[in-house]
Amino acid sequence: MTRHRCVLALAAVTLFAAAACGSDNDDAPEEPAGSSASGKADEVTTALEERVRAYTDAYFAPDADTAYEMLSQRCQDQINADAYATQLDQAAADYGQLAVETLTVDEVAGDMARVTYTVGLPKFDKQLVEQPWVRDGGQWQYDAC
Asked: Which one is the CATH code of 37-142: 3.10.580.10, 3.10.450.100, 3.20.20.60, 3.40.50.2000?
């Protein structure tokens, strides 16, 4: 047999053996859609989306106490609560009650995430691109300070 035929024969035997053996989990039931890793990712994304919407609602309500509590510890260490409340009061007076119109979770890596969302005002929307969020104590916290 020539070298070429030997290689082809070996490849055919390897493919046949792989097909005959199948995977180790042939008898295992298939996981339902949305379970396991994809289900966990969906839960994380849903929790993050809910938190972004709640923070935005509190920010423009204005509900300074709630919004401030939704800041990461790092941001709370940098931002005075009274100054923050004044900022929210001014935003509500200037723009009224705004809410999330579109939202995309750009990235989730462990306890850190990036989210892009809009509230219908270009002044704010251009700043809401890939906003950082961190998960602390099981809750997503706004981390763009």
From this structure: 3.10.450.100
